[in-house]
Design brief:
single chain; 254 residues; mainly beta; outer membrane lipoprotein receptor (LolB), chain A; 15-stranded mixed sheet; globular
C-alpha cells in the first residue's frame, strides 16, 4: 500500500499541457555535433513563471492498476502542488520538502527526496523533477562530453567516457530540441528509469510535453506511469494551499 501511494504521488509530479497543437516533425541535421545539440537543447528550454492545469495519470505495477485525474499548480524553481478531486489526496513539493496526505486512510508523508530517489534508482531533487515536467534533461548535459548519433529520428547522446555505476542515454527530437527519451540505469542493481515523451504541444507559443510514459524497474519489478496533460495555462497568479490535517498518521518509508 505504501509503495503504491508513493508511486502514485510521484506520478502526480510529472505534468504539463493543453489539448491544442501537437508538435511533430523536424529535420535531422547529420552534421550537427553533440556540443551544438546540447547547446540547442538549453537554448530552447521552456521559459515560464507558473503552470496550472489538469492531467490524467494511469499507474500500473504487478499488484495494482489505478487511474487519476488531478489539478496541477507549479511555480518555477519553488513549488509543485497537486490535488485530487475534493482534496482527497494532495501533494506539495519544494526544493527542500516532499509532502503528501491521503484522506481516504488518514495518512501523510513529510520528508525529503531520499525515498523517491531510492525508489526510482536515481538521485532526485527538485530541479530534476521540474526538468522532467517540461521536457528537459534530468542531468546537466553541459557537464560531460557526449558522442552523437541518429536513432529513432532523434539525436542520440551517450557519454564519451563510461560512468562507473550508471549508464545513461538521451534522445533529443530535432524540431525543438526537447527530450524524446532519457534513460538512467544501474545494471548491477537491476535498476532502470526510462522516460519517454511521446509528443509535445504548442501552447501560447511555448513547447511543452503532451504525453509522457515512465517505466521504473527495480529488481525485475516494473512500474508504469502514463501521463496526459490538459487545459494548461501559463503565468497565472497562483496560491498553493496545503496543510496536513490534524490527527493523520505519519507514513514511515523504508
Amino acid at each position: 500500500m505504501i509503495k503504491n501511494i508513493v508511486f502514485s504521488v510521484f506520478a502526480l509530479f510529472i505534468v504539463s499541457c493543453k489539448s491544442t497543437k501537437v508538435v511533430t516533425g523536424g529535420t535531422i541535421d547529420e552534421n550537427l555535433n553533440a556540443k551544438n545539440i546540447i547547446k540547442s537543447h538549453y537554448a530552447n528550454a521552456l521559459d515560464f513563471k507558473t503552470i496550472s492545469g489538469r492531467m490524467d495519470i494511469d499507474f500500473q505495477d504487478k499488484n495494482a492498476s489505478q487511474g487519476f485525474n488531478v489539478s496541477l499548480r507549479m511555480e518555477k524553481d519553488k513549488a509543485i502542488w497537486i490535488s485530487a478531486p475534493l482534496g482527497v489526496v494532495k501533494a506539495y513539493i519544494t526544493p527542500k520538502r516532499v509532502s503528501f496526505y491521503n484522506r481516504l486512510d488518514g495518512s501523510y508523508f513529510d520528508g525529503d527526496f531520499s525515498y523517491l530517489s531510492n525508489l526510482l534508482g536515481t538521485d532526485l531533487d527538485f530541479e530534476k523533477v521540474q526538468n522532467l515536467l517540461v521536457g528537459q534533461a534530468i542531468l546537466d548535459l553541459r557537464n560531460d562530453k557526449y558522442d552523437a548519433t541518429i536513432a529513432n529520428e532523434n539525436y542520440q547522446l551517450k557519454p564519451k567516457k563510461a560512468l562507473d555505476l550508471f549508464k545513461i542515454l538521451f534522445q533529443i527530437e530535432p524540431k525543438n530540441f526537447k527530450i524524446g527519451t532519457q534513460q538512467i540505469s544501474q545494471p548491477e542493481n537491476g535498476r532502470l528509469l526510462d522516460i519517454t515523451y511521446k509528443n509535445y504541444q504548442e501552447i501560447d507559443q511555448k513547447i511543452i510535453p503532451n504525453e509522457i510514459d515512465i517505466s521504473a524497474t527495480i529488481d525485475n519489478n516494473q512500474s508504469l506511469i502514463a501521463i496526459a496533460y490538459k487545459n494548461i495555462e501559463f503565468n497565472r497568479n497562483l496560491k498553493f494551499p496545503y496543510d496536513i490535517p490534524k490527527g493523520f498518521k505519519e507514513i514511515t518509508l523504508k
